[in-house]
Specification:
Number of strands: 5
Order of helices and strands: EHEHHHHEEHHHEH
Radius of gyration: 17 Å
Helix content: 40-55%
Distance between the termini: 17 Å
Strand content: 5-15%
């Protein structure tokens, strides 16, 4: 799937758990970019397919299923295969109809899904593991849950190496906002195509 569109700059945003990706997405939205969140679209399609999901998992509780799929690769793949095509199709439709020239698509599994060549640029929000763990625990995650989920994703340092642009987020929200704003201002000067 190719999300690039003439006259628009479409960026695939990724990062690690509690690295600041969602915060960066909020900042891009405040600055005037169109933002798309794969997790939000996932919630929508989870509801649409909840009967199928209940049949497969004997539950429809998102938190319970999330905990299970990070321990069961077969179930995780099944759920991804069910939801991802619809998420990507809707994202493409949003991009096609967008009037905004800068579009940020937050896709945590961008590299895992092999979509790195589907964007004008890929952007990784990077924070050190200890900082991410501390942030996750402050949000209510158990340390062992954070570690289990983090292990199921491509290591963050690998995502950073693969990404076209990396924004480091080991500091405050203000620091992330300043860096994001500088990057946005560069993008705003000229579309990629």
């Amino acid at each position: 799937m190719d999300f690039r569109r003439k006259g628009k700059t479409v960026i695939g945003l990724t990062g690690g758990i509690s690295g600041g990706k969602s915060t960066a997405l909020e900042i891009f939205k405040e600055l005037g970019a169109l933002t798309i969140c794969a997790d939000e679209l996932s919630k929508k399609y989870f509801e649409i397919f909840k009967d199928k999901i209940r049949e497969a998992f004997a539950s429809c509780d998102r938190a319970e299923i999330a905990a299970r799929i990070f321990k069961d690769d077969v179930k995780r793949k099944w759920l991804e295969n069910l939801l991802h095509p619809f998420i990507l199709k809707e994202a493409a439709e949003i991009i096609n109809s967008a009037e905004e020239k800068i579009i940020i698509f937050d896709l945590p599994l961008l590299f895992e899904a092999g979509l790195e060549n589907s964007f004008d640029l890929t952007l990784c929000i990077y924070a050190d593991d200890k900082i991410r763990l501390s942030r996750a625990v402050n949000k209510g995650f158990k340390a062992e849950d954070f570690k289990a989920r983090d292990l199921k994703q491509t290591p963050l340092w690998v995502k950073a190496q693969k990404a076209d642009i990396v924004i480091y987020n080991n500091e405050s929200r203000k620091e992330l906002k300043d860096k994001t704003e500088r990057f946005f201002n560069i993008l705003n000067k000229k579309p990629m195509r």
